[in-house]
Each structure stands twice: as structure tokens, then as C-alpha cells.
Write a structure and sequence with these properties.
Keywords (chains A, B): Glycoprotein, Hydrolase, Protease, Signal
Family (chains A, B): Belongs to the peptidase S28 family.
Largest sheet of chain A: 8 strands, mixed
Helix content of chain A: 25-40%
Order of helices and strands of chain A: HEEEHHEHEHEHHHHEEHHHHHEEH
Structural class of chain A: alpha/beta
InterPro entries (chains A, B): AB_hydrolase_fold, Peptidase_S28, Ser_carbopepase_S28_SKS
Oligomer: homodimer
Largest interface: A-B, 49 and 49 residues
Number of strands of chain A: 10
Protein name (chains A, B): Lysosomal Pro-X carboxypeptidase
Chain lengths: 465, 465
């Protein structure tokens, strides 16, 4: 179930603001860490120089995550909004194997080509690109600030950790860098999802929790198929056990997504949603509903908010799974099956989901049958570290307490220059989004904290030239 | 000419002390940064636990450089001598593609297999090995101190820079991490070689400088072949231009090696040498020798000291080039042809050598014809950085001013925890060698500086558990 989760997470706002940039391409080696393969290919990057002071203005560099880079450029309003104040160049770099940055064209995700899709290779791409943007200078002129949200936030932090000579500082928003095996309890993520619903009313959470058995019972009878298809506006009828599971997985992802993007303003997301979408859907569940049919009708209303808020959807395509949405993030399944092993589980006790323990053996077998690889559960911890962040510097980790990914985030300041900012009312990397009149003061504070630190890092950079 | 130089540098003392260790093997992936290749192979490592406090004693970890690890274990006396004081476990890890750590057996250095010989892969091997030695623990029990000399010193520093969560601190002895293109003047190395000879007398240096033309003139006549072979005890006669160049390259390397290993005590090296070998050979050159035959006779005496101090050599095998010596370091040529690009040049003005400008095009073409690869002159700088060491921490860079490799060393303290120690009377990583009654006070100071810093790093580690 879970590998699609992060994808959904990251299929973020299609915000209305249209930012302007030039689209460029940069050649990188397929393999930065060996010389057996000599192929090179192009990664895409987007640039805006409108506010740039070419003498010594900083480069604001978004470390692209799993998806077309345009999506991240369009919704990381924070970078655009502060560029003028800093006289910054803005760069959004696309992660290899996503969007148009394909080493082997449309065969890139084939088993025989996909193996160079790793975070280390992506970071090395970014390092090469920045070296180019600095004119390959021994003493680079421009301070570079890395920005990223979610997996992009992990990359921003890792970029500073691994290449501090290239990146002056990093704003790592909602970066679950502790989500690896043994580092965070596997049930924390779903506990946070649950608590987001519980906050809107105990009944909301209880009804959802009760709904799983109701759905399973209801769908055992073929007579109910037509009713459910009609009431829930499903594209396909629920005819067998696989369909039932797909539907339940879809609903699970829906609740997760609603929690993640529980922003204080309406957003055009993967699915367009109203402000505070969790509150909106909980309106339909805010009394104890013991009648099964009524409960199913109400869940149908929730589905309708999630899938058809803009009244443009024909039907609920619950079978689409991880392809749901318009971000082409199919490479993520492979990353989750190699280095990005992030155990998740539910127990049905402290969360509103069906019990689903973390089973690494099954996970591993599934990965092998799908990609011919076995996950390396220690790889990311060995490469990037875990608890010992004290040797790092100039990173701000921000996390919103409404965001399930906070389960793997850094919530406490580690040192003078590895700092945590907690955004009480924030969902998934709200601080990177365009500012909005409904923003809670906590995110406004986070953004000014970021700006202060960026100023400090730039001063540091300049004092060392 | 030059790729063999570093090899000679590192073909270090076959010291008399025999240290005891267990020989073990550890399985590592061929490619740590991608998943296209799934082969694994074994690297060798040596362990001694005699003094180890298994509760929380540190691990002293030598980041093996280009050669069999036993050679480094046997002559890094400093680690052995301080192990008891620190209750340390001692580990010497062999660098992939050297010694017995061959991914493809005796075919490892073939063009189709050698591409995974890189510093990044070697560091990742070491990270995996330490993770294993720490029982794959999320919160490792044992502080790890990295040690290394020369390329091994570069690796020790890089290890701390890239994996600070795994390595608590690093003693990087004679690590020329600024030897990359554009970072140090290409003639500095040979200027230091020259100055080591000049210190022993202006005439010594002048005679050597004059000798090149004398040798070239003398060897143009076939009549002189027999005389030179006999006087210099050459294994092969000097018959053509290639032979002349080989001989001149051999002599150049000899002067370099003499400068590098200009230790205050006799050592069994690649070639056994007396204490202060530069002083010893300069005894033969310490007057202005204008007579060509006499000069050649005297150079013959120098050759004899260098090649036959123990009276065991049958003849001078000047054609052996980079294979001269018993360290199997043939992989180094490949590393120098890929990421380890270290420009060197002479101009015959500020040095005692024939002018030999740095010609990257020729160098690059030679690499391509030999290995099918082109050197990447920016690679190491992008991966490891150059001037911007301020973000690093817990590294001591030590350099001896007698050592030509100091040309690419860090001679000035960068920050509170990236410190430089200059050893006025020190040759190549003298501080890592076993202590000796003739040690100058400057190296004794360096060693106690190292110990103090190691104590400090271990305290830091423990205070953060």
C-alpha cells in the first residue's frame, strides 16, 4: 500500500500564480561515482534572473524531487516572493528519472536502465549544475541556498550535508529524514493522520474507523455493487476482493492526502480542495453514525469533496492507485524499493485504519518481483546519517504539526546552526507555498525565520571570500 | 611522467616492527550509488582488539590507500603506539582494487572492470564496514577516528567531511587535498623537492640541475653505453631515446622519493635508506663539478645509495617505472586518469629539473589511449570541495615542510576544529610513523597535538550519546 503514499504527498498544489522562467537543459554523467559507464544525458532546469544581482547575488536552488520540476516551481511561492529582497537568481532543477530528465528516454524506467535513479546521483547532478552556474570557479562568487519540500527537503538537507562547499545553507521543509527503519515508530505517520481528523471531532475519526468493516461487509454482496457505484460515482464497479482492496487503499490515501494538504486556503491541488479540507469533510461525519447505509452515503460525500470539488470529475477512478494525479512520479516506487525504505504500519488502536503491520519480508519480495532489486534498509542511514546531525550546519528543518510526514521530521534544534521550526497549524511544507491572507501566524513566523537564516548564511559566505 | 610519483610516495617504510592483527574480509556492493549492478565482493581488513574497551572504546580506522593494506598497517606505528592509551580497537581497511580487495579477481584492472575504482566507492566501503563494526546500530556505541597518510590522508579527511555521522574525527597526514587543477601552482611540488637538496648545499642542487644535459649529451654517443651501464650498474644499457627518457624519469623519481622520505632515521623502505638520505647523497655533490665524467660518476654514487644501500640489489632497474617497488599500486594510474587529476610541472628555473610544462591535452590523450577514459579535472573539486573547508569539523591536517606533497596540503588552520599542524623537519607523514629517538621535537609535538584532539573528539562523541 504505502509506496504510493509519498507520491500522493508530493503531488502538490497546482497553484494559480504563474511564475515566469526560462527552461534549460544541462548535461550530466549517468554515473558520477564510477567510470564504467560513460553515457551522459540532460536534466532540465528552470531559471529566473529578473531580480538577480550578477555581482554577488545568491542562487536560490530548489533540489527537485520526484516529479516534473514545473509543478514544484509553480507552487514554491516562498522562493519567488523573497527573490527580490535577496536579489537572487532562482533555479529549479529536475530530479533525474522524472519529468523530462530521462537518461534513456521513455525506456528509462525499464529494469535495465533504472539503476542510476538514486538520491546520491541526483545530488551529484545538482552539484555539477551549480559548478557550471558558478563558472567552474575555484572560489565561487555566489552563495547558494538550497530549498526543498518533502523528499525535496530531504535532498536540500542532504545537499548541504554532503556538499557544504557548494551549498551555503538549506531550507528543508517537511523533510522526513528520520523515516528510515528503526528511526521512527512505523505507526506515527498514521497516528498523525488520525489526529487531524480527531481534532475536527471524535465522531469524525470514529466513523471513518468504523467504515472499513462496513465497506467490507457491504461489498461481499453482489447486490450492493450497483448501489455503491451509483452512490459513490465510481468509474468501475466493485466486483471482487481486489476491487475492494483497491477501493479501501484509495480511501486510505484520500484521508492521508486530506491531512497533508489541510491548508487554511482553497488550493488547486492534484485535486482541487476547499480551505481546511479535513474540517469540510468531517462535517459529514460529525455525529455517531451507526446505520451502515447512512455511513456509506456520508463517506460518499467525503469522496465527492475529494474527487470532485471543482465539479469537473466524471467519476471516481479508485483503481488508478499511485498513478492518480498528474505528477509523473512513477520512479518513486523504485526509490522506495532501493534506498528510500520508510516503514509504515497501522494497528487500528491508535489510528483510524485497518491493522496493517510493517512486513519487511513481504515488502522486499514485492520489490524484487517488480524491479528485480531488494531494498537496502540500511543504505540511507549509512549514507546520510540519522541522529548525529551535530556535525552538519546551516540547515533549517521545518515541520507542520498537521502533517503526517512530521513523524519522520526533525522537531528539535540540534545545534546553533541546525535548527528546527515547528509550525503548529501547518500542513505539508506550507511554509514554502505562496503566502495567503489566511496563513496562520505560525507559518508567517517560520517564513521570517527562514529569511533571517538565509541572510545570516549569505553574510557568512561573503565574509569568507 | 608524474602518475607514478604518488605511487612512489606511498610505497612507504617496510618498518622493522611487526604488529599483530587478524586478517578479515567484508562484503561490499560493487556500486554503492546505483542498483544496476548487483555484484558484491570482499575487501580485506586487519583488526587488533588487544587494547579495546568493548564497552565504549574508540575504533581507530585507517582509511587504506593505494596498496596492500599490510604495508600501511606495518608502518603506521602512531596508531599502534597510542592504542593502549585510548583502549582502542585498531582497524586497517584495504582500498578496493588494491591488494587482495579485487572485485573481479585478477581481471579487476581490465578496462571492462576497473570503472568502480573511485574514492567515493572506497569511502562507501569503509562506511559500510564501520556500520557493521557498530552492529548496524542506530546509535553507534564506539567513536571512530579515521587516520591516513598521503592519499590515505585525503580519504581520512574526506571520510569525516562526507560521513561525519560515522567518523568522529580525522587525522589527515600529508594529504594533498589542494593538488587539483587550479588549486595549487603546478610547479610547487618540484620546488620543494629542489629546496630539500638546496638546503644541503647550493652545489648539490646545481650539480643535479646540470646533470640532465650532461646525461643527454653523454648518451647520444653509442660509445658511452658500456661505460654508463658499468659505472651506474644498470640492468639494461641505454641504447635509444626511450631508454634515455626512462633513465631520466627514474632519476627524477629518485630525487622526489629521497625528498619525501628524508627521515631522521634509517628506514627499510621501498628501498632501504640511511637517515637523512638527502644529506647522504648530497655528500657526493657538495662541490661545483664541471667535469662531465666526474659528475656522472658522482650521480652513479647517488644511484647506488638509492638502489643498493643494503647491498642486495644486483643492478639498477631503471625501466621499471611505476612498478618499481613492492606495493601493488597499479590502480593508481587509473585513479590519476579519472578523478585524481593533480597537475605538476617544472620550469628549470625555480627547480633543478628539466622544463616540463603541464599539458592537460597530452595527459588526457594518454589516459584515453591507456584506459579508454578521459580525466575529469573538476570532479574531485566538485565532490570534495577546495577552499571552503569551514563547514567541515574535527580534522587535523598535518604536513612536513620537507615533504613535496606539502605543495597541496592545508597549512593554515581553517576554524576551531579544522586545524593545521606544520612539522618543520618532517618528511612525508612522518607523524604517522613509529616514534624514534631521532625524531625532531616538531613531530613529537604533532603527535601529542593529534592525541589531544582525538581525546577531545571522543569526549564530544560521548557527551552526545
Amino acid at each position: 500500500m504505502w509506496p504510493k503514499i509519498l507520491i500522493l504527498t508530493l503531488v502538490v498544489a497546482l497553484v494559480k500564480t504563474e511564475y515566469k522562467y526560462e527552461t534549460k537543459y544541462f548535461k550530466v554523467p549517468l554515473d558520477h561515482f564510477g567510470y564504467q559507464r560513460s553515457e551522459r544525458f540532460q536534466i532540465k532546469y528552470l531559471v529566473n534572473d529578473d531580480y538577480w544581482n550578477t555581482q554577488n547575488g545568491p542562487i536560490f536552488f530548489y533540489t527537485g524531487n520526484e516529479g516534473q520540476i514545473e509543478v514544484f516551481a509553480q507552487h514554491t511561492g516562498f522562493m519567488w516572493e523573497i527573490a527580490q529582497e535577496f536579489n537572487a537568481k532562482i533555479v529549479f532543477a529536475e530530479h533525474r528519472y522524472y519529468g523530462a530528465s530521462m537518461p534513456f528516454g521513455n525506456k528509462s524506467l525499464d529494469k535495465e536502465h533504472i539503476g542510476y535513479l538514486t538520491s546520491s546521483q541526483a545530488l551529484a547532478d545538482y552539484a555539477d549544475l551549480i559548478d557550471y552556474l558558478q563558472d567552474h570557479s575555484i572560489k565561487p562568487k555566489y552563495p547558494v541556498i538550497a530549498f526543498g519540500g518533502s523528499y525535496g527537503g530531504m535532498l536540500a538537507a542532504y545537499f548541504r550535508m554532503k556538499y557544504p562547499h557548494i551549498v551555503t545553507g538549506a531550507i528543508a521543509a517537511s523533510a522526513p529524514i528520520h523515516m528510515y527503519p528503526g528511526m521512527a515508530p512505523c505507526d506515527a505517520y498514521y497516528r498523525i493522520v488520525t489526529s487531524s481528523f480527531k481534532v475536527e471531532g471524535q465522531s469524525c475519526k470514529d466513523n471513518i474507523k468504523r467504515s472499513w468493516k462496513v465497506i467490507r461487509d457491504f461489498t461481499t454482496s453482489a447486490n450492493n455493487t450497483a448501489w455503491l457505484k451509483a452512490k459513490w460515482n465510481l468509474c468501475d464497479p466493485v466486483k471482487n476482493a481486489t476491487d475492494v482492496q483497491d477501493l479501501i487503499d484509495f480511501l486510505g490515501s484520500m484521508y492521508e492526502t486530506l491531512a497533508m494538504v489541510n491548508y487554511p486556503f482553497p488550493s488547486d491541488f492534484l485535486v482541487p480542495l476547499p480551505a481546511y479540507p479535513v474540517r469540510v469533510v468531517c462535517q459529514y461525519l460529525n455525529e455517531s453514525i451507526t446505520n451502515s447505509t447512512l455511513l456509506l452515503e456520508r463517506i460518499g460525500k467525503v469522496l465527492d469533496v475529494f474527487t470532485n470539488y471543482d465539479k469537473k470529475s466524471k467519476c471516481v477512478d479508485y483503481k488508478k492507485g499511485s498513478d492518480y494525479g498528474n505528477l509523473d512520479a512513477s520512479g518513486w516506487d523504485y526509490q522506495a524499493c532501493t534506498e528510500m525504505v520508510m516503514p509504515m504500519c497501522t494497528n487500528g488502536q491508535h489510528d483510524m485504519f485497518e491493522p496493517n503491520p510493517w512486513n519487511f519480508t513481504k515488502y522486499s519480495d514485492d520489490c524484487h518481483s517488480k524491479f528485480g532489486v531488494y531494498p537496502q534498509p540500511d543504505a540511507a542511514r549509512i549514507t546520510y546519517g540519522g541522529d548525529r546531525l551535530a556535525a552538519a550546519s546551516n540547515i533549517v528543518f521545518s515541520n507542520g504539526l498537521l502533517d503526517p510526514w512530521t513523524a519522520g521530521g526533525i522537531l528539535n534544534t540540534v545545534s546553533e546552526s541546525v535548527e528546527a521550526v515547528v509550525i503548529l497549524d501547518g500542513a505539508h511544507h506550507l511554509d514554502l507555498m505562496p503566502s495567503h491572507p489566511s496563513d496562520p501566524p505560525t507559518v508567517t513566523f517560520a517564513r521570517s525565520f527562514h529569511k533571517q537564516r538565509i541572510h545570516k548564511w549569505i553574510r557568512q559566505f561573503r565574509s569568507r571570500i
